């Protein structure tokens, strides 16, 4: 009876852990975007004041670069969760062994 409760609790913890990981990735993306945008705008303002006679082009350009960098980092963060799409060929014996292991695990549960 207690083993059933612990397996149910562990399954719930695994589900919560994956949802928490996804939430952490989104939080990291948003904060990264905000930080990069602020830094990019700040660098653009400084460059505009010092070198470009208070024109807005350096501000837009550096902010765009910063947003692009944050977007790329966010894509890289989420890419680890996606499949690569690479086809892996396995032998028939290995497939049968895997299926047998899965059946044993289902019987034990």
Structural class determined from secondary elements: mainly alpha
Give the end-to-end Cα distance, rounded to a whole number of Å. 12 Å
From the alpha-carbon coordinates, what is the Rg to the nearest angstrom? Answer: 25 Å
Gross geometry: elongated
- What is the oligomer described by this structure? single chain
What does this structure look like?
- The protein is mainly α and 109 residues long.
- It has one domain.
- Helices cover 82% and strands 0% of the residues.
- Helix 1 runs antiparallel to helix 2.
- Component of the MICOS complex, a large protein complex of the mitochondrial inner membrane that plays crucial roles in the maintenance of crista junctions, inner membrane architecture, and formation of contact sites to the outer membrane.
- It comes from Capsaspora owczarzaki (strain ATCC 30864).
